[in-house]
């Protein structure tokens, strides 16, 4: 029988993996979007972001401009394949 300490160690080791395995597709999509926006080096990854002075990025966003960065901003931009790849990547961690 495992003691309380051993159980807590096992839960800590497998907790993140279990959490990722049980995320809904919408939760995964939100995470993909958040990571995409966070990886953009400036404040205007998406049209709904705001500049440093508080104005809307709108058409000045990377999302709205062809070429260069292509951040993922909306749920409809996340494919089923993106979700499957994300879940697979999380299983390997």
Describe this structure in words.
This protein is an all-alpha fold and 93 residues long. It has three helices and no strands. Mean pLDDT is 83; it is low at 1-18. Residues 1-18 form the signal peptide. Keywords: Signal.
List key phrases describing it.
0% strand; disordered N terminus; mainly alpha; signal; 3 helices; 93 residues
Question: How would you summarize the topology of this molecule?
Answer:
Blueprint: H1 4-21, H2 25-39, H3 80-92
Helix pairs in contact: 2-3
Signal peptide: 1-18
Keywords: Signal
Quick overview of this protein structure:
Residues 1-18 form the signal peptide. This protein is 49% helix and 0% strand.
Q: Specify the biggest β-sheet.
A: none
Count all strands and give the number: 0
Shape from CA axes?
A: elongated
Number of helices: 3
- Give start-end ranges of low-pLDDT stretches: 1-18
Structural class based on helices, strands and sheet pairing: mainly alpha
Task: Write down the Rg.
Answer: 18 Å
- Note the gap between the termini: 28 Å
What is the percentage of strand-forming residues? under 5%
Mean of residue pLDDT values? 83
Overall helicity: 40-55%
Please give the domain count: 1
One letter per element, helices H and strands E, the order comes to HHH
